[in-house]
Design a protein that fits this description.
heterodimer, A: 326 residues, two-stranded antiparallel ribbon, 4 strands, 2% strand, disordered N terminus, B: 2 domains, 6-stranded parallel sheet, 6-stranded mixed sheet, 11 helices, 48% helix
C-alpha cells in the first residue's frame, strides 16, 4: 500500500532534474523565434565553431566529476582546467612567436605544463586530502599567475600556419577545429564509456567504498582523472589560440563560467541526472547557442552577465536538489 | 583700421556661422533609418568603454537605425568572437570599440562580406575609419606634465602592458618615452610594470604594493600609466596605504573617477589628459551615417582632448565634461 502511494505520487525530484533542460529548450525556442537566423546553417556552424574550446575543457571536467561523484562541494570538480588551457596557450604562443620554436615541440612543452597542473591537483586531493574545490581553486590561481609571468600580462599574436589553418580551414563544409573536436569527443567517449578504465572510473564515482572493496585502485583512478582533465585543458589551448589568433590575457574566467554551466547543465540530459560526457558536450553547445542567441536578439549588454550568473545558480541548485538527500 | 578689423571679424563670424550651419544641414540629412548597425565593445566594466559604447548606441538609435549590441565582458577573445555573431546577423555596418589583434581576422571577414567596419581606438587596415582621440598630443603632453611634476629629474616607473598590443597605446607610451629622451636625468625603472586588462584597479594596487616593497622610500619619484587611467585608481590607493604619497602619479583618459581623485587635497595624482568617450562613440556612429550618405571619410577622425594639470584643472574639466561639480 505504502509502495503504491509512492509510485503514484509525482516524482518531484526527477522533475527538478529535468528543469534546467526544459528552461534551456524554452529559451532556445524563444530565441529561435525572435532571431530566425539563429537556426540557419551559417549560425549553427558559428555555434559549433565558438563552442569548441568550451567543449574540450568540458570533456576534462566531465571525467573528474564522473570519477569523484557529482556533489558540487565534496565530489569531483576541477576549476583549474581553463587556467591550464590558458597557460598552455600562452606557452605555445610565446614559443611560436617569440622563440621561433616549431609547432610540435611548442605543443609538447605546453602539454607538459598543463599536465603538471593536473599532477599537482592529484597530489593535493589524493595525497594531502584537500577537497577538490579548494585544491583546484588554489592551483587555478597559481596557474594564472604563472601565465602572467610567461606573457608578462601582454598579448602575443600568433600567425603560425598550423594555428591559422585550424582557424580558417574547412573539410567537408565543417571547420577543421570542429572536426578535430569531434574526434576528441569520440576518443574520450571510448575511454570513459567503452573501456575497462572507464568502467572503473564510473565505479569509483558511483560508490567509492564499493569500488574499493571490489579491488579497484580508487586513489589511482582519482589521481588519473585530474591528469586527464588537465590534458584536456592542454589540448583546448590550440583551439583557444586559433580562435583568438594568439593569446590574450584574461580569457580563463569566461571559459571557467561556461565550463561549469555546460557540464552541470549536461547532467539534465542523462536519465539518472548525473554528469556524463555526452551531456557535457551537448551542454557546451547549448550554452554557446544561448549566448549567441541573446547577442543576436540584441539583449541589453548590461543584463547578459546577470542572466548568465542566474543560469549557473539555477542549474547548480537544481542539480543539488535532484541528487540531494531528503 | 578699426572698421577694417570689424569687417574682417564680421566676415570671419559669417564664415564660421555658415560652416556650422552647413555642417548642421549636412548632419540633418544623415540617417541610419532601415540600417542594422552592430556595436561591439570589448567590455562595459570601465567608464571609458561604457561611455563610448553608450555614445555609439544612442546616436545610431537617434539616427533611426537598429542596434545589435555585443559586449566582450573585458575578454578580447570573446570580443573578437562577437564579430562573427554580427556577421551571421547580416548587419549593415559594424562599430567596433577597442579590442586587440584578435579582431583583425574578424574585420577582414566582415569586409569580405561587404560589411563596412568603423573602429573606435583601434586602427585597422580593414576598417573604413577609426575614431580616436589625438593620441600623439596625449602622449607628449602627459610626458611634459609628468617631467615638470618631478622637477625634470628622478626615477619613474611605467605601467605599460599594451604598448606592443594596441596601436593607440604604442603611440601614447611611445611619445611619452620620446619626451623623456630630452630629460637625461629621468630614469625609467626597468623592467616596466604590466597591468591587467580586467579588474585593473585592484590588480594595479597589488602590483604597486609589491613594487614599493622592492623600491624603498626616496628611490621612486613618479608612476605613470602609459595608456589609460583605471590602474591609477589602484596605484593611488597603494601609495596611500604605504604612506608613499610623495610619489607623483600621472595617467591618461581622465574619466570622472580619476578626475575626482585628482581634485582631492594633496592628491599624488597630478596630471591626466581627459578624453570625450561619449563623443568619440557618437562620432563613430555619425561616420557610419556619413559613409552611407556617400561622403568620403578620412582614415582617422580625431576628437578633442583636454589636458588636466593639477587639482584645479581637474575640477574645471570635470565640470566642462558634464560630470557635475567638485
Amino acid at each position: 500500500m505504502n509502495n503504491n502511494t509512492q509510485s503514484m505520487a509525482f516524482d518531484w525530484r526527477g522533475f527538478t532534474g529535468y528543469l534546467p533542460f526544459l528552461v534551456f529548450i524554452l529559451m532556445l525556442g524563444y530565441l529561435g523565434y525572435s532571431a530566425p537566423n539563429l537556426l540557419t546553417a551559417e549560425s549553427i556552424d558559428l555555434i559549433l565553431r565558438q563552442s569548441v574550446p568550451t567543449v574540450v575543457v568540458c570533456l576534462g571536467l566531465a571525467v573528474v566529476v564522473i570519477a569523484g561523484g557529482d556533489d558540487v562541494v565534496s565530489g569531483g570538480i576541477d576549476l583549474s582546467i581553463p587556467a591550464a588551457a590558458v597557460l598552455a596557450a600562452a606557452i605555445i604562443a610565446d614559443q611560436l612567436t617569440n622563440h621561433g620554436t616549431a609547432f610540435v615541440p611548442a605543443l609538447s612543452m605546453a602539454m607538459c605544463a598543463a599536465m603538471l597542473v593536473g599532477v599537482v591537483n592529484a597530489f593535493l586531493v589524493v595525497r594531502v586530502g584537500m577537497t577538490p574545490l579548494l585544491a583546484t581553486l588554489a592551483t587555478s590561481v597559481a596557474t594564472v599567475g604563472i601565465t602572467k609571468v610567461v606573457t608578462a600580462s601582454r598579448r602575443i599574436n600568433v600567425d603560425h600556419p598550423t594555428i591559422v589553418g585550424l582557424r580558417d580551414n574547412e573539410l567537408y563544409g565543417l571547420s577543421v577545429g570542429v572536426l578535430l573536436t569531434m574526434v576528441l569527443v569520440v576518443i574520450f567517449y571510448a575511454a570513459v564509456h567503452r573501456s575497462k578504465w572507464g568502467m572503473n572510473l564510473q565505479a569509483v564515482g558511483g560508490n567509492r567504498d564499493a569500488a574499493d572493496i571490489s579491488g579497484i585502485p580508487v586513489r589511482r583512478m582519482l589521481a588519473q582523472s585530474f591528469v586527464v582533465a588537465s590534458m584536456a585543458g592542454g589540448l583546448a589551448s590550440v583551439f583557444i589560440l586559433a580562435r583568438g589568433s594568439g593569446s590574450s590575457p584574461g580569457s580563463e574566467e569566461n571559459l571557467l563560467l561556461e565550463m561549469i554551466l555546460a557540464t552541470f547543465l549536461g547532467a539534465a540530459f542523462s536519465p539518472r541526472r548525473v554528469v556524463t560526457l555526452w551531456g557535457a558536450v551537448l551542454g557546451a553547445v547549448l550554452v554557446t547557442a544561448l549566448s549567441i542567441g541573446f547577442k543576436s536578439i540584441g539583449v541589453n549588454v548590461f543584463w547578459t552577465g546577470c542572466i548568465k550568473g542566474a543560469l549557473i545558480l539555477f542549474v547548480v541548485a537544481t542539480a543539488a536538489l535532484a541528487t540531494g538527500k531528503k | 583700421m578699426n572698421s577694417l578689423l570689424k569687417m574682417v571679424a564680421g566676415v570671419a563670424v559669417g564664415v564660421a556661422t555658415l560652416t556650422v550651419s552647413m555642417a548642421a544641414v549636412a548632419d540633418g540629412h544623415l540617417s541610419l533609418a532601415g540600417k542594422k548597425v552592430g556595436v561591439a565593445v570589448v567590455g562595459t566594466q570601465h567608464f571609458w568603454d561604457r561611455e563610448a559604447f553608450n555614445g555609439a548606441v544612442d546616436t545610431v538609435k537617434k539616427l533611426g537605425g537598429e542596434v545589435v549590441p555585443v559586449d566582450g565582458g573585458r575578454d578580447n577573445q570573446v570580443h573578437a568572437d562577437n564579430h562573427d555573431i554580427l556577421l551571421t546577423n547580416k548587419v549593415d555596418a559594424v562599430i567596433s570599440i577597442l579590442g586587440d589583434g584578435a579582431v583583425e581576422p574578424k574585420f577582414e571577414a566582415l569586409k569580405d562580406a561587404g560589411i563596412p567596419v568603423f573602429t573606435v581606438d583601434h586602427s585597422s587596415p580593414h576598417a573604413v575609419n577609426n575614431t580616436t582621440s589625438d593620441n600623439y598630443y596625449m602622449g607628449t603632453t602627459i610626458g611634459r606634465y609628468m617631467a615638470d611634476s618631478i622637477g625634470g629629474k628622478g626615477r619613474v616607473a611605467i605601467f605599460n602592458a599594451f604598448e606592443g598590443a594596441l596601436r593607440i597605446c604604442g603611440i601614447r607610451a611611445g611619445l611619452w618615452k620620446y619626451v623623456m629622451q630630452d630629460y637625461p636625468e629621468i630614469e625609467i625603472i626597468q623592467p616596466e610594470l604590466a597591468e591587467a586588462f580586467a579588474n585593473a584597479p585592484e590588480d594595479a594596487r597589488k602590483k604597486t604594493l609589491d613594487f614599493l616593497n622592492q623600491n624603498p622610500k626616496g628611490t621612486v619619484d613618479a608612476i605613470h600609466v602609459g595608456c589609460w587611467d583605471q590602474p591609477a585608481i589602484g596605484i593611488v590607493q597603494a601609495l596611500e596605504e604605504a604612506g608613499r604619497t610623495e610619489i607623483k602619479v600621472t595617467a591618461l583618459d581622465g574619466g570622472p573617477e580619476t578626475l575626482e581623485i585628482m581634485a582631492e587635497d594633496n592628491s599624488p595624482f597630478v596630471a591626466n589628459v581627459a578624453q570625450q568617450p561619449n563623443l568619440i562613440g557618437s562620432t563613430a556612429a555619425m561616420n557610419v551615417a556619413r559613409h552611407f550618405h556617400g561622403d568620403t571619410l578620412l582614415p582617422q577622425t580625431y576628437v578633442d582632448v583636454m589636458p588636466v594639470n593639477g587639482a584645479e584643472e581637474a575640477k574645471e574639466v570635470y565640470e566642462q565634461l558634464g560630470y557635475g561639480k567638485l
